[in-house]
Amino acid sequence: MKKIIGIYILFLFILIILIPLTTGYEDKYESINKVESVLNYDLPDYFSWKDYEGYDWTTPARNQRNCGSCYIFAAVGAIESCIKISENDPYMNIDLSEQYVLSCLPGATNNSGCDGGSAGRVFEYILSNSSDGNYYNGIIPESCMPYQANDTIPCEDKCEDWVNQLVPIYKWDMVTRGGMNRIPDIKNKIIKIGPIAVKFMATSHFSSWFKNNHNPNDYYPDSESVEGYNHGVVMLGWKDDSSIENGGYWICKNSWGSFGGYDGFFNIEYNALNIGFSHMYYVSVAKPDLNTIDTITLNDLTPGETVSFNFTIENNGKYGSLLDWNITEWPDWGEWTIRPKYGISLTPYDEPIVVKVSVKIPDLEEKDYKGNIKIINKDDEEDFESIEITLTTSKIKNKISDNAQNNRLYERLNFIQSYFSNYFL
């Protein structure tokens, strides 16, 4: 009985050991099913574009007067600051025309003008070259069409050479609503792109507080329960403070003139009056610059094998630029797996995107394969990169040589013999 069991075990050992020798093998590629943008949560406790590196990158607080155009002032104020930041010039004197939006961009105001609207629509139609965007991307200077707090002023009242004075934008997007869990994301957009346009519920109590509090260290507390939103402002920084119940406050610029708050600016506790709960909008005024490597060369590869390699994608544009990219072409030989194939809102200060590539080479000896992987800037197809791929196969096909098979088989049979000698002894 012992001998029969031993023979049976020997048979199983032979099957287990010999099967791998006859089935071959190939390298495995670990695919990535989802690529998520990684936010930099190592953020400073204090940051403000009003005094970043000792300079003021904001523009003065304006006065919307008796017109519900706060959403326009929030959007235009963010654009003005982002231009100064992108041009690396805190002394730049820039004042853009809110009246141009009121009078010439009906899509931006949703034909409601002084009755309120969305900063997101302002960005959308400044960028648009449709009829609702006045057929051009851009906004003109204040001097070309001064603000009159009146949505019945005709668009024809702008200066004659307005087209030559247009200041374009390149992209806009939003931080989705969320409250406290969105604070790191909001901070990230502010520090990597610039000030953003936000909404909150400006109550009568807040209005009184803003009028009478002028200390830059004061903040409006989270002391009222409110619903909805009625006022848009520019959010330009924050201060974390563990002594404050919600952990800190936002730094904002208002559009009620320079006499309230501190020169028209104010601080408000995280989440107070629903600030940070609604969608928040950010804008890019700088053109992105797609960058990657030039060539990939792989020589003496085994025909039919699967090889893997990586390359990175970067945005080398100015501060605040946003790159949406897409891989549109790759060689038509072999079986290709590329992940990720696209990405959005890559800033110059984000970590480069690592693209992982796997290709199963055709099973042909001594062949040269050439092709290109093309990556485009989705907002500007003239901005693209083409990586030249060169692969060369050798004479040896993707299988274990006869000598290697014999050597491995000999080693395993020696192991089996040694095992059973000890077993029966």
> How many helical stretches?
8
Q: Separation of termini?
A: 15 Å
- Low-confidence region ranges: 1-41, 398-402
Report the radius of gyration as a whole number of Å: 32 Å
- By DSSP, the count of extended strands is 16
Q: Largest sheet, if any?
A: 5 strands, antiparallel
Within the CATH hierarchy, at the fold level, what is the topology of the largest domain?
Cathepsin B, Chain A
Q: What is the overall pLDDT average?
A: 86
**What is the 3D form?**
elongated
Q: Roughly what fraction of the amino acids lie in strands?
A: 25-35%
**Series of H and E elements:** HEHHHHEHEHEEEEEEEEEEEEEH
CATH homologous superfamily heading of the largest domain: Cysteine proteinases
Structural class estimated from helices and strands: alpha+beta
Helix percent band: 10-25%
Could you say what the CATH architecture of the largest domain is? Alpha-Beta Complex
CATH class annotation of the largest domain:
Alpha Beta
Domain unit count: 3
Can you give me a brief rundown of this structure?
The protein is of the alpha+beta class and 425 residues long. The chain has eight helices and 16 strands. Strand 15 (368-377) and strand 16 (380-393) form a beta hairpin.
Question: Any overview of this molecule?
Answer:
By secondary structure, the protein is α+β, with helices and mostly antiparallel strands. The protein folds into 3 domains: 2-24 and 401-424; 46-284, Alpha-Beta Complex (Cathepsin B, Chain A); 290-393, Immunoglobulin-like, CATH 2.60.40. It is built from 8 helices and 16 strands. The strands form 4 sheets. Strands 1, 3, 4, 5 and 6 form a 5-stranded antiparallel β-sheet that branches. It has a 5-stranded mixed β-sheet with strand order 9-16-15-11-13, with no helix packed on it. A hairpin with a 2-residue loop joins strand 15 (368-377) and strand 16 (380-393). Helix 1 (2-23) packs antiparallel against helix 8 (402-424) and helix 2 packs across helix 5 (119-127). The longest helix is centred in the C-terminal third of the chain and has 23 residues, at 402-424. The chain is elongated and about 90 Å long. The model is unreliable at 1-41 and 398-402 (pLDDT under 50).
